[in-house]
Design goal:
The protein has 416 residues and is of the alpha/beta class. Helix content is 37%, strand content 15%. The strands form four sheets. It has a seven-stranded mixed sheet with strand order 2-8-7-6-5-3-4, sandwiched between helices. Strands 11-12-15-14 form a four-stranded antiparallel sheet, sandwiched between helices. It has a two-stranded parallel sheet with strand order 1-13. The longest helix has 20 residues. The relative contact order is 0.18. The structure holds 4'-deoxy-4'-aminopyridoxal-5'-phosphate. InterPro entries: Aminotrans_V_dom, Aminotrans_V_PyrdxlP_BS, PyrdxlP-dep_Trfase, PyrdxlP-dep_Trfase_major, PyrdxlP-dep_Trfase_small. This is Aminotransferase class V-fold PLP-dependent enzyme. GO terms for molecular function: transaminase activity. It catalyses: (sulfur carrier)-H + L-cysteine = (sulfur carrier)-SH + L-alanine.
Length: 416
């Protein structure tokens, strides 16, 4: 039952994005924030000497920065398969992107979510939103959404706008939600759909057109770019009709002398008041370009092999119980949450860091309703009465190696 022998982590990271890392430190916490890709670091280094105001100045530096910022927007638009009339708005992160859309909803919009969401896709929505129970299969999610939307259109709020807001891949279990099917159901009922792609975008192509979804939100810092830049991409009409997310310079086309005499800009500028995060946007776009150029099916296959190695290794440890929403075979990205029966998760995480230089996350992962439910389901499934109240999460990235996975498994097999 003991997993394969440990092999020391190699500093060589044979991934096409050249993800940076610290030799000897095993980072298995990519779902929180991924390390920086070489492409992002290079893009920032190249632009730093030119660093000047965006959209403001007539000087050569400023014009170059404006161009770089708008090129970054185009690269992101290409990365997300934006339709010609979609907007790509730079935000701080996914949370900011979802909050922006929440403020842009037409009056009377009902938002429908599942209880399996990250707090960023649960808490911004207005009162009266519908939270569907966590389904036990992807097909169950589709059925449950169809029933809820049917009811809303028929009886509860006929004629009013509806937005379905779902995760692309769970930050707790890594399980992929059936986004394209949910989009079909939403559209059949006249609703729109937002996909929280914070965890999906780093692992799989996210394409507004191919998935036929209306909005996508994701974070640069989970996509191998530095902190501080995220994206909301999607349909322009609600965004152009909404009050600006922030009121201020850059979001206006005319401001008069009288109080409140203001015409707001349309387009992304309407929601990007203030000096934008040029370096963040450029770094994020550089990663988008590098990922577009990479062989994503090869990256996917590599990650799936590592994930299978991790999950089968965990399954072989008698005290480890995996958390999951759907069946064990449901498609996943490289994220696994689990508990070690009889062990406090925070203590296990601290031990992994102190003894083995392995970084994992412990807690409820900003998805309290889901993680609590999955912990109680894991107790029932495993018939263990000694499961802890919080979980551990290991998440893989482009730089993760098989020896790193094995080191984690060995460390868990030999907990003192
Ligand atoms: N949604 C999901 C699925 C996430 O995993 C996260 C980050 N843990 C967020 C939203 C929020 O992302 P950020 O903290 O970058 O705003």
């Amino acid at each position: 039952l003991v997993p394969p022998a440990p092999v020391l982590p190699t500093p060589v990271r044979p991934d096409p994005l050249g993800v940076l890392g610290v030799p000897g430190e095993i980072n298995l916490d990519h779902a929180a924030s991924a390390p920086c890709a070489r492409a992002a670091a290079d893009a920032v280094a190249e632009l730093l000497p030119w660093y000047a105001s965006v959209h403001r100045g007539a000087g050569a530096l400023s014009r170059r920065c404006t161009l770089a910022y708008e090129r970054a927007r185009q690269s992101v638009a290409d990365f997300v398969g934006a339709r010609p009339d979609d907007h790509v708005i730079f935000t701080r992160n996914t949370t900011d992107a979802v909050n922006l859309l929440a403020r842009a909803l037409p009056a009377g919009t009902t938002v429908v979510t599942f209880g399996g969401e990250h707090h960023a896709n649960l808490l911004p929505w207005p009162r009266g939103s519908v939270r569907l129970p966590v389904p036990d299969s992807p097909a169950g999610a589709v059925r449950s959404l169809a029933a809820a939307l049917g009811e809303l259109a028929r009886d509860a709020r006929p004629g009013l706008p509806v937005l379905v807001a779902v995760t692309g891949a769970s930050n707790v279990t890594g399980e992929c939600w059936p986004v394209a099917e949910l989009a079909r159901v939403a559209h059949r009922h006249g609703a729109r759909i937002l996909v929280d792609a914070a965890q999906l975008a780093p692992h799989a192509p996210v394409d507004l057109t191919a998935l036929d979804v209306d909005y996508l939100a994701f974070s640069g810092h989970k996509l191998y770019a530095p902190f501080g830049a995220g994206v909301l991409a999607g349909r322009a009409d609600w965004l152009d009709a909404a009050p600006p997310y922030l009121a201020g310079g850059g979001a206006t086309s005319h401001v008069g002398a009288a109080t409140h005499e203001v015409r707001w800009a349309t387009g992304p500028a309407r929601h990007e008041a203030g000096t934008p995060n040029l370096l963040g946007a450029v770094a994020l776009a550089a990663v988008c370009e590098a990922l577009t150029a990479a062989d994503r099916s090869a990256l996917h296959a590599r990650e799936q092999a590592l994930l299978a190695r991790l999950r089968s290794g965990l399954a072989a440890l008698p005290d480890v119980v995996e958390l999951r929403t759907f069946g064990p075979e449901a498609p996943r990205v490289g994220i696994v949450s689990f508990v070690v029966a009889g062990r406090d998760s925070a203590e296990v995480a601290a031990h992994l860091a102190a003894r083995h230089r392995i970084g994992v996350r412990d807690g409820l992962f900003c998805a309290h309703p889901l993680t609590r439910r999955l912990l109680s389901e894991a107790a029932t499934r495993s018939a263990r009465t000694d499961l802890p109240a919080t979980a551990l999460r290991a998440s893989l990235g482009l730089g993760t190696t098989a020896p790193e996975v094995d080191t984690l498994l060995t460390a868990l097999a030999t907990l003192p």
